[in-house]
Amino acid sequence: MKHIFLLFVALLATTTASAQNFDDYFADRTLRIDYIFTGNAEEQMVALDELASEEGWVGRRVNLDAVPVRGNGDIKVIDAESGNVIYKNSFSSLFQEWLVTDEASQLTKSFEATFLVPFPKKEVFVEITLLSNEGLKQASLRHKVNPKDQLIRNMDKRTATPHEYLLHSGSSKECIDIAIIAEGYTDAEMDIFMKDARTACDEIFAYEPFASHKNRFNVVAVKLASKQSDVSVPQHNAWRETALNSNFHTFYSPRYLTTNSVHLIHDALVGIDYEHLIILANTDTYGGGGIYNSYTLTTAHNPLFKPVVVHEFGHSFGALADEYFYEQADHTEGTYKLGYEPWEQNITTLVDFESKWKDMIDKGTPIPTEPTDKRKEKYTIGAYEGGGYMTKGMYRPAVICRMRDNVATQFCAVCQRAIERVILYNTEQE
User: Fold this and answer.
1) What is the overall mean pLDDT for the chain?
2) Is the separation of the CB atoms in 4 and 423 below 8 Å?
3) What domains can you pick out in the chain, each with its CATH number?
4) Of 295, 299, 320, 330, which is closest to residue 111 (Cα–Cα)?
5) Rounded distance, CA 414 to CA 412, Å?
């Protein structure tokens, strides 16, 4: 805990000097920006699709002009008069994951993306940048937003999807708001969805550091009905008409469950307070997916539902990498390369280990670290080879962890620190 506190203090020391006062620049409204990411392995582009707004802002009101984790991209709101960054957030995208697949070298495709930023009081520039895992710019777009623009779609009077709070710890100004959304549940199956949503909520908050910071979260279950039950499973030639058009077999990986209908997700949430998204799929097919500051999407009726929903939320909320690895190549091959330090806090190539968890390793622990029974039992922190889908040259913090194993009963201490950093960054200024 001492290490976590010192890290947070150091982080704030680098940001509070330029921290923005929310009320100086923003109204209590949300600006929704829909983009299209398009391209192939050689060339990428960002296009603006639409602007919309609605009453209330439920995102962070502290530490506005910096981010706790780099991600594979960022979006900035820049005051047009002064040129100062007055809001910034980081993210990753399904598009960028696709760029390292074989298909991307042969085909040009487009992917949807939506971002929520506080509504500016005066003219601003919005700048969005896509980065490779190495931190190199892939694409960017800078566009002006006039808050008086009559073509910003006003969403205030739309009817909200039926919803019910599972956890309500305080106002959205004080808490982080999570929406758990039904996918592949018909109207007649909403009681089943509510039971599944409660299970997901209870399971996430059984893990540290979520358990210790439960009073900083609100969780709402969104009863979004689908025309058909279950979700699409292309590898079984099963296509179903569901509310969010999700499907397995993403990038031809049977267990990777995603949706590219991102704009549709946000349409369904108008009138509901939310920052982070967990989508529950009404299926017993094993799988899921989690994309940093985009969404978690996971099966609800597979026996491994509980560990998987926590694991995927580790991706989408905590910006954590997968710590497992494959002996044979699959769609993840090429995600990381050796020679640079990945941005995720729970894997390392040892290129810049000082920036990761070197400070958490007991004196005398060898680097790299060989696993032993004692270390496995105690989740002892080291640098164990294998992680980020790679068997060689990439290292993870512990032998077992929720980000590696479904048998793990906790996040390792490194992942806990990374998650807590995000929680505190979004809820505390000093």
Assistant:
1) 93
2) no
3) 2-155 (2.60.40.3250), 163-316 (3.40.390.10)
4) 295
5) 6
Question: What pLDDT score does 78 carry?
Answer: 98
Average pLDDT rounded to a whole number, residues 157-167: 96
> Residues 189-230: pLDDT tens digits?
999 999 999 999 999 999 999 999 999 999 999 999 999 999
Q: Which two tokens stand for residue 398?
A: 């512990």
> What 3-state class would DSSP assign to 316?
helix
Inter-residue contact 179 to 276 (CB < 8 Å): yes
Rounded Cα–Cα distance for residues 418 and 225 (Å): 35
| pLDDT confidence of residue 8 | 45
Angle at 220 between CA 219 and CA 226, to 5 degrees: 135
pTM above the 0.85 mark?
Answer: yes
End-to-end CA distance of the chain: 17
356 within 8 A of 3, measured Cβ to Cβ: no
In sequence order, the 6+-apart residues with CB closer than 8 A to the CB of 158 are 54, 270, 271
Q: Which of 290, 299, 350, 294 is nearest to 320 (CA)?
A: 290
| β-pair type (276-281, 176-183) | parallel
Structure tokens at 225: 């009905």
Give the residue from 3, 1, 4, 108 showing the smallest Cα distance to 421: 4
Rounded to 5°, the CA angle 416-418-423 comes to 90
- The helix, strand and coil proportions of the chain, stated in percent and rounded to the nearest 5, come to 25, 30, 45
